[in-house]
Amino acid sequence: MDQPYRMRAVLAPLDPTPAQEQLLRSYCGASRFAYNRTVGVAKENKDKRKEERRAGIDEADLTRALSWSAWSMTPLWNSMKDEVAPWHHDISKHAFQSGVTNAALALKNYSESKKGVRKGPPMGFPKFKNRHSKQSLTFIQFDRTGNWFSEDSRHVRLILPRFATDPRITRRREQLQWIHTTESLARLTKKVMAGEWTVQSVTISLDRDVNAARNIRDEGIRLLTNEASTVAGHQPETLNAVSRDRKTKPPRRGRGDRYQSRTTQSTPELSPLA
Q1: pLDDT single digits (tens) 98-142
Q2: Dihedral sign computed on CA atoms, order 205, 206, 212, 217
Q3: Cβ contacts of residue 259 below 8 Å, gap of 6+?
Q4: Helix/strand/coil percentages in the chain, nearest 5
């Protein structure tokens, strides 16, 4: 039977305040923490059963295998969070839930790949994430699906922790709960309010490489400046030589930015503009 609905994704750039960005980064870190903890528990259970088989223990007497589904891993996380994450009160539960759900999905893909059910290249056991991994989390809410966007269609709701103890959150709830977006969401908001669309989840991704945007900006300014100098009858290399004579700062470099490195290599000195 065909599904009576169709899934769609809408991409909107966000412009969070420094306080909101700090809170979102703590959310992403908490999601990564829950992901690693879930994968670690599953790996520990898997390795223990493997060692017991090597020791000759009967299959019926092995340590009970854990279910890798999100429905089973979520209660397990809730039972240990007070011990392993006593700071969880200052983080939205959606952050931890996002990490557990992603870990359960990765474990499912590994299991199906090992059984030959999953198409595509073989997948290994999920690896632990680190600080350099992609920062993202998903907010899922089924009971308040129409409450994600503000009336002016310029803000997206940020779910805050209910029982926060951090004064940076408790004293600034009104300032933190709405994230400004640089594009209008009027069309989406209208369809949600009319009941045509239902928004059950919002995924937020953060860009760690801040220097990448700066490199793009600086490179664009350099190209535009060189193009203007060419139109005026001067060569771009001549303008670069004058810039070095004036001791201007070179564009910022980012990790792995080979193209930017090539453009900032030293070149033979040319005669300055007359």
Answers
A1: 999 999 999 999 999 988 888 888 889 999 999 888 888 888 876
A2: positive
A3: 219
A4: 50, 10, 45
Residue 32 and residue 55: Cα distance in Å, rounded?
34
Paired tokens of 148: 């994600």
**The one-letter amino acid at 153:** S
What angle, 0 to 180 degrees and rounded to 10, lies between the N-to-C axes of helices 236-245 and 210-231? 120
Contact 157, 148 (CB under 8 A): yes
pLDDT in tens, 135-190: 888 888 766 555 788 888 888 889 999 899 999 999 999 899 999 998 888 888 88
Q: What are phi and psi of 183, to 5 degrees?
A: -125, 140
Residue 90: which of 102, 79, 81, 101 has the closest Cα?
81
- Residues written for the chain: 274
Yes or no: say if 129 and 36 are a contact pair by the CB < 8 Å rule: yes
